[in-house]
Design goal:
Number of domains: 3
Radius of gyration: 24 Å
CATH architecture of the largest domain: Orthogonal Bundle
Shape: globular
Order of helices and strands: HEHHHHHHHHHEEEHHHHEEEH
Strand order of the largest sheet: 2-3-4
Helix content: 55-70%
Strand content: 5-15%
Number of helices: 15
Number of strands: 7
Distance between the termini: 82 Å
CATH class of the largest domain: Mainly Alpha
Length: about 375
């Protein structure tokens, strides 16, 4: 082998080694950045964030049935709204009508209508038509007539992602966890549907960013995707977020402190907490701890805001945003922003918080995960 060839080989090996070391260094920096939340930002802000706030300000932040004194007025307005809405999205109008008949909750229906309005992408035009329902002289829509009109919807669900196969797979998998979600909701005294609204967005995000893995593994088994690298479990909880949640339970001075009833709920049973935490959150056989940690993050954020005088317990869009951007970025204020990571589904861009709101108020899975007062 002549000197020229040896020189070329030597240079090639050096270049290859340099590239390999550079690649390893970049991966290491990325791991450290994620581990210590250096990549955490406030994310994207939903352009409709003001609509969520203004509607919530006008309601009672409760899904309780309205009083008898206001029932006639509310019924007339709701039936008028659903009659108009049926021209644009009769499938969704029918869903809202059925839930209103069951709950008689005016506040709940207004939030469900807003979810449809936003997805129609023409809020102003629809609002102009809906404003007639605020007048004293408005169409008198009978409940029987409206029920017949909505009996056989002709249009597809306006929440298009719910018409796709990935959601049908996730939906079946979620139903397998019904008892677990209800158990966690009962233990934490929060709505299982609220926890689910965050979990579902995480599942959709995992599918649309790791589609090959979903198609090969999770689709055939009809199970939820279980993250186990940078974030863990079916709710994709980062290690730092899990540790912070544990610490808040013990720290009486923390704004996130839930009280003595919850101090020991995450106590470890072994002398290797790091391993036990990982095993808890990545357990393929039981998602209990995934939902428990996720539910505690939601509850801690709710309590923090309550201590500053703001009730966000009926604001899935805000709680999902805080879950996504990290509670270290949680700053209680009068007009919170809806946002978080951007998720693209079949060409439509969503932000984390608004997609959680969309599921929560879609009415889907309401028989198994009802709206809580």
């Amino acid at each position: 082998m002549n000197k020229t060839v040896k020189k070329i080989i030597k240079i090639s090996l050096k270049i290859t080694g340099f590239i390999t070391l550079s690649f390893i260094f970049i991966l290491f920096c990325g791991f450290v950045a994620v581990k210590f939340n250096w990549t955490k930002t406030a994310g994207n802000i939903d352009e409709n964030t003001g609509l969520y706030d203004s509607l919530d300000d006008s309601l009672h932040s409760s899904f309780l049935p309205t009083s008898r004194d206001t029932n006639d007025v509310n019924n007339a307005r709701v039936y008028c709204q659903l009659y108009i809405l049926s021209d644009y999205a009769d499938y969704n109008a029918a869903t809202i009508f059925n839930i209103y008949q069951q709950t008689k909750s005016y506040d709940l229906v207004q939030k469900m209508i807003l979810a449809v309005e936003i997805r129609l992408n023409n809020v102003k035009a629809l609002n102009d038509r809906l404003s007639i329902c605020d007048r004293e002289e408005k169409p008198n829509i009978g409940v029987t007539w409206l029920a017949n009109r909505l009996q056989n919807p002709k249009q597809a669900n306006i929440f298009t992602w719910q018409n796709e196969e990935p959601w049908q797979i996730i939906r079946q998998a979620v139903l397998k966890d019904k008892d677990t979600l209800n158990k966690v909701g009962s233990e934490l005294k929060i709505s299982p549907r609220l926890i689910l609204s965050v979990a579902i967005v995480e599942q959709l995000r995992l599918y649309y960013t790791q589609r090959e893995l979903f198609e090969r593994v999770f689709k055939p088994l009809k199970i939820l995707a279980n993250a186990n690298k940078m974030a863990w479990g079916v709710m994709s909880i980062k290690e730092t977020a899990a540790i912070s949640t544990e610490q808040n339970l013990k720290n009486k001075q923390s704004d996130f402190y839930l009280g003595s009833d919850y101090e020991n709920i995450l106590n470890f049973k072994t002398n290797t907490p790091d391993k036990e935490r990982y095993d808890r959150l990545t357990d393929n056989n039981s998602h209990y701890y995934s939902y428990l940690y996720g539910g505690l993050i939601i509850k801690e954020a709710t309590v923090q805001w309550q201590k500053f005088g703001y009730d966000i317990s009926f604001r899935p869009e805000i709680l999902a945003t805080l879950f996504n951007i990290g509670t270290q970025n949680s700053k209680p204020k009068q007009d919170p922003l809806v946002g978080g990571s951007k998720i693209t589904i079949d060409g439509h861009d969503y932000v984390f918080g608004s997609l959680a709101y969309e599921f929560y108020y879609s009415g889907d899975l309401v028989a198994d995960f009802p709206y809580s007062y």
